[in-house]
Amino acid sequence: RQTDYIDEDRVRAEIIAAKHLYEKHGWPVIDVTRRSVEETAAAILALLRDRAAPR
Q: What are the residues whose beta carbons fall under 8 Å from the beta carbon of 47, sequence distance 6 or more?
């Protein structure tokens, strides 16, 4: 029995929907491929610092 979590077409559709949602709201996307939790946290903190910096 195939569930939504192993249906490749469903997974692709969810990824596309998520990308559109992020673009619509201007939310950043961080590629965490081959990154440690610490590296990911540092990238998130850098994004927050950049947003908080006066312009």
A: 28, 30
